[in-house]
Amino acid sequence: MSHPKKGFTLVELLIALVLFLIIGSGVFWVVVKVLQSIASTAGEAKQTTSIELNTDWLIFDLKHVGYGIAATEPSLILSFCNGSGSSTNDACRVANDIGAEGGKALLLKETTNIADTGCSSYDPDFGFGFVLWNGTNVVYQETPCDVCGIYRNSIKCVWLTTKRLYNGTDICCNGTASAPLVGYPIDNDSACDDYSSNPACCSDQNCTGIVWYLKTTSTYTPITHCLNETYVLYRKTTSSDGGFEYAKPVSDCIADWTIWFGLDTDGDGKVDTWVNEIPNGYITANQDLRQQLKIAKIYFLIQASYTPQADYDFCKISANDCDNKCGNGYILADQLVDADGTTHYVCLKHPSSSEWVHYKWRIVTIPVSGFFDIP
């Protein structure tokens, strides 16, 4: 004889309901936390991407260093001051003059930059890269504007021989010799040759000096979430009167930066030595730069979250080496090894306040190679 199935009691139903609510609440909490983490990470990734994209200008300047500079120019077309205080090179002198944070500055020299030259380099219909002179006439203009018209006559060109020797500066319609020349346009507002007064200028010809550095100034207010002891990355150019043009802000919330240069000192085509300052014992002239410089690695420590999180510790969670190999107040960003086994620590300074570890940070590394315009 079959017996009817026994149903659930009220107590059993209540217990099941409570368990369901507890488990459901736990799952909901986990989902919310995961979504918050994804949203936070996405926002920070977007910010970091934006900062990396802003450095395209820096990469452009570095890859084109020496463009239109004569092989006989005595001043170095690239110098970097690492802020150690032990050097008085051109970049260090400029860093001191402009008040660069930490005494660090990258100084580059070339004939053109992204600026108004009368034929704007922003617009391919009006920009140009060089002019060819056959000894009598201009025979080629890369993307010419008005050929030998009002635009050409409003700017000047540095004329170099086929052996890259300086042959004078004149309007881009008139070569300065009865022999083939290459004309490189200069920016009338920024090109200078007063090296004795401003080490960012060239010495034997007109060129534009470009300086990259960190600073906090009263003329620009960074976005509000940037911590104290983070700075703005600036780009400044020389002016035709021997001084400097107005600095242009590029990126915010940067705690520190540095550059290491990979050199091929034995001529085998491979990097064997890493240096953190130029000039140095290996590089004292532009010829040394051309022969030895293979790669530059630029490092930034960038704030990547808007607000602190009390339960977040950047150094522990990210497994970064903080206040250890580089010393108190610094993060280890990289380790570079010379061919002889010598190891160099790449160190970036973090903010000194205790709250800095509760923010998320990004160590951005930008390798740059292919310096084909070095004279």
Give a brief outline of the structure.
Helices cover 20% and strands 28% of the residues. With 375 residues, the protein is an alpha+beta fold. The protein has a domain at 46-115 and 187-369.
Description:
- With 375 residues, the protein is an alpha+beta fold.
- The protein has a domain at 46-115 and 187-369.
- The protein has five helices and 15 strands.
- Strands 1, 2, 8, 9, 10, 11, 12 and 15 form an eight-stranded antiparallel sheet that branches.
- A hairpin with a 5-residue loop joins strand 13 (330-337) and strand 14 (343-349).
- The longest helix has 45 residues, at 10-54.
- The protein starts with 9 loop residues before the first helix and ends in a 6-residue tail after the last strand.
What's the pLDDT, averaged over the residues?
A: 84
| Number of H/I helices | 5
Q: What's the SSE pattern?
A: HHEHEEEEEEEEEEHEHEEE
| Portion in beta strands | 25-35%
Measured as a percent range, the helix fraction is 10-25%
Q: Judging from the principal axes of the Cα atoms, what is the shape?
A: elongated
Number of strands: 15
Architecture blueprint of SSEs:
Blueprint (H helix, E strand, L loop, with lengths): L9 H45 L1 H8 L14 E5 L7 H9 L5 E7 L20 E3 L4 E4 L14 E6 L4 E6 L9 E5 L22 E8 L15 E7 L10 E16 L9 E3 L10 H7 E11 L10 H5 L11 E8 L5 E7 L11 E9 L6
Antiparallel strand pairs: 1-2, 2-8, 3-4, 3-7, 5-6, 5-7, 8-9, 9-10, 10-11, 10-12, 12-15, 13-14
